[in-house]
């Protein structure tokens, strides 16, 4: 059974410190077993300036079992799947310890953004690019950060106008944008596939 009092304590501690670290954790919905973690992209990396959301699922064994974590925000990194957001990190697998917290796990994920491990990849294509053509890797990672991890400065009305100019009906655009929390890229993906 998940230790809910510990989870609440971890959320409070992370909340007190989020101004300094930029890391936050919030419940997704009303259950403490499904959370959303947010980390800022580390300075001096292609991820700088980005804000990355991570889906966190706590299994019954937490804190004795590691939390399930994967990126919601698309990211170009050797140890993170560009398709599913799965993360290859030892503390989320066999190196987990109950002494670790959700915040320390997110700090480790943030550190992974700073120091990729291409010899133990989650995404072989990205790892090969990192090893063989670092400049292309860095510019692709930066482009993905700009495209997927930077909050848009446009308001909802401007986003509706921008997508409606592409030929989609305004009412559908507005409904689609609302269903994806105002994310233009996700809305466009949904509109194109629908």
Structure description:
By secondary structure, the chain is α+β, with helices and mostly antiparallel strands. The chain has two domains: 4-149, Ubiquitin Conjugating Enzyme (Roll), CATH 3.10.110.10; 156-193, Helicase, Ruva Protein, domain 3 (Orthogonal Bundle). It has seven helices and four strands. It has helices at 4-21, 102-114, 124-132, 134-149, 156-164, 170-179, 184-193, and strands spanning 24-27, 34-40, 51-57, 68-71. A four-stranded antiparallel β-sheet has the order 1-2-3-4. The protein is globular, with a radius of gyration of 18 Å. The N and C termini lie far apart (40 Å). The model has no long low-confidence stretch (mean pLDDT 90).
Mean residue pLDDT: 90
Strand order of the largest sheet: 1-2-3-4
Radius of gyration: 18 Å
- Gross morphology: globular
Tell me the CATH superfamily of the largest domain.
Ubiquitin Conjugating Enzyme
| CATH C-level class of the largest domain | Alpha Beta
Oligomeric state as shown? single chain
Q: What's the domain count?
A: 2
CATH architecture of the largest domain: Roll
Please count the beta strands (DSSP E, at least 2 residues each).
4
Which segments are poorly predicted (pLDDT under 50) over 5 or more consecutive residues?
none
Main sheet overview: 4 strands, antiparallel
- The SSE string, one letter per element, is HEEEEHHHHHH
The termini sit apart by 40 Å
Structural class by helix and strand composition: alpha+beta
Q: In which range does the helix fraction lie?
A: 40-55%
Number of helices: 7
% residues in beta strands: 5-15%
Could you tell me the CATH topology label of the largest domain: Ubiquitin Conjugating Enzyme
């Amino acid at each position: 059974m998940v230790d809910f009092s510990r989870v609440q304590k971890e959320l409070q501690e992370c909340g007190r410190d989020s101004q300094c670290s930029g890391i936050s954790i919030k419940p997704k919905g009303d259950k403490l077993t499904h959370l959303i973690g947010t980390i800022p992209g580390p300075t001096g990396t292609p991820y700088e300036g980005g804000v990355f959301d991570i889906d966190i699922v706590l299994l019954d064994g937490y804190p004795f079992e590691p939390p399930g974590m994967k990126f919601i925000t698309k990211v170009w990194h050797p140890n993170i799947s560009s398709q599913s957001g799965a993360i290859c990190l030892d503390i989320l697998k066999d190196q987990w310890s109950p002494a670790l917290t959700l915040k320390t796990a997110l700090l480790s994920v943030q550190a992974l953004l700073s120091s990729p491990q291409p010899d133990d990849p989650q995404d072989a294509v990205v790892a090969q690019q990192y090893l063989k053509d670092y400049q292309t890797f860095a510019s692709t990672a930066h482009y993905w950060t700009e495209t997927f991890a930077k909050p848009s400065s446009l308001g909802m009305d401007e986003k509706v106008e921008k997508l409606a100019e592409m030929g989609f009906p305004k009412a559908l655009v507005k409904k689609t944008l609302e269903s994806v929390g105002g994310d233009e890229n996700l809305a466009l993906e949904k509109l194109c596939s629908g």
